[in-house]
Amino acid sequence: MKILSRALFLLFVLVGVLMAVSNTQLVQLALWPLPHIIVMPVYLLVVGLLLLGVLAGLGLGWWAARHHRRRAREAGSEAARLEREAARLRAGLAAQQPVTTAAGPALPGQKAIERQSALVAPDLVAPATRGPFS
């Protein structure tokens, strides 16, 4: 792809140089409301008009994409809000997890609840509460 783009660039440069060499005649450019007349070679006028067209196309493309940029900003802020909420919920879940000690067992049915929550939302369960086969 890089070779193709370089070849096309060289082709456009070659066409531009050939046009500049073969069109050196002077033309007068008079812009109606202004009293000035600009004298320039034909190739310079053509290159200037092409540049003006490219800039106009870029401006219209930027203007047309404003809705997409706004939706992307809104989606990014929504994703950040959801990340903050998920972190808050993970912290709350970690605070609610009972600490099991060697002196006493956990509440009856606690293992079943842990297994079920691991199946429903595996990323919300702390890795220490999972067994080797769950």
- Which structural class matches the secondary elements? mainly alpha
Question: What's the helix-strand series?
Answer: HEEHHH
Mean pLDDT: 84
Tell me what portion of residues adopts beta-strand conformation: 5-15%
Walk across the major sheet and give the strand order.
1-2
User: What is the general shape?
Assistant: elongated
What does the main sheet amount to?
A: 2 strands, antiparallel
Q: What is the C-alpha radius of gyration, as a whole number of Å?
A: 34 Å
Helical percentage: 55-70%
Query: Can you count the beta strands?
Result: 2
Q: Low-confidence spans: pLDDT under 50, at least 5 residues?
A: none
Q: Determine the N-to-C terminus distance.
A: 48 Å
Contiguous helical run count: 4
Describe it for me?
The structure is a single chain. The chain is mostly helical and 134 residues long. The chain is 64% helix and 7% strand. The protein contains 4 helices and 2 strands. Strands 1-2 form a two-stranded antiparallel ribbon. The longest helix is centred in the middle third of the chain and has 31 residues, at 66-96. The protein is elongated.
Question: How are the elements arranged and paired?
Answer:
Blueprint: H1 2-22, E1 26-30, E2 37-41, H2 42-64, H3 66-96, H4 110-120
Antiparallel strand pairs: 1-2
